[in-house]
Amino acid sequence: MADLVKWCLYISYFYGRLTGVLNFEIDLRTGRTRITKWATAYAACIQVSAFIFLIYHTYNTRNMKTIWANANLVHRCVLMIMAVFRMTSVLLALISRWLMRKRFVQLFKSFLSLFHKNPEAIQHCRKGILSKCICAMATEILQLTMGLTLARNYLNVTLVLGICSVITMTAIINVIITQYYIAIAKIRGCYILLNKELEAILNEAQSLVPNRRGVFVTKCCSLADRLDRIAQTQSELQDLTDRLSKTYELQLLCMALTYYLNSVGSLYILFSTGQNQNLIADWPRIVTFLAAVYFLFFYLDNWITMNNSFYLLDVHAEMVKLMDQRTFLSPGLDIRLETAVSDFI
Q: Whose CA is closest to 59, among 37, 79, 30, 45?
């Protein structure tokens, strides 16, 4: 499981570089993050090329002209709104990454430092990361397979590039959301470790019998030091969470609106095909099956993504609940331990 998670993290990084979402380089061995001319030029070329081919594919290819001609007015409006809004959202998200590139570099440095300090934290979020990566990859593979299957009789270089540009939009959205998901999951794993250590400290403190002897004072000082370290780490995690939210603020808004609009549009298309079977009469049966599987993974991916932030809130609430147990500590503890307990959170 641990090796699979490591490969998921590697794939996420290289996929981010491939799609141009990551416009800087990270040395995975040393953790060094840097902005290079090659990374800048490659990311810019990939993004511009993807939008050019997507616009051309949407409005000028023979297949899309046929779709526009056969679709009624309502279908055209739905498809047009989905296409324009999707491209606009992705464009705004990418622009924000260029404008705040230095902030993203610093943010990635902070998370790499956090990973090296707490490598065991990944063990507490590996299932979530693995599930998220599998769902994201499944939606892209299914979308690509359906596109190539439906256009199998008309495939040419232009059409393939157009289909790939559509998949690139999905890939960019998935990369951005997956990066944010992994970051939140990593913070959650660190909180879980802190909660376990905090619980151990409180249990030891509750077992202390105040007698003002040397061993008692030494034990209190040791517990106070450990509690101060937890408080410092918790403060760093809170600061990192705030920086993460502010840096991804515009992108998350764009992605959330895109998810919502895609869901509404997809449900409308499903309703339309149910009312008019002629829309899918020429589809191979395998495409209908793949479409059903795609929607399954799509909504499962949404559910996993949304619950990730709620899980982080849960572990933070658990930390607050643990600190409520300080009222059960015996009176007369060493002043330093009492101060460390009262100042925590």
A: 79
pTM score of the predicted model: 0.86
Q: Residue holding tokens 């994201």?
A: 136
Q: Where are the alpha helices (DSSP H) in the chain?
A: 2-19, 37-59, 62-70, 73-99, 101-117, 126-150, 157-207, 214-247, 249-275, 285-323, 335-343
Are 148 and 163 within 8 A, CB to CB? yes
pLDDT in tens, 10-21: 888 888 888 888
Tens of pLDDT along 153-195? 777 777 777 777 778 888 888 888 898 999 999 999 999 999 8
Domain that holds residue 185: 2-343
- The Cα 103–Cα 115 span in angstroms is 18
Domain count, the chain: 1
Q: Among positive and negative, which fits the CA dihedral 200, 202, 203, 209?
A: positive
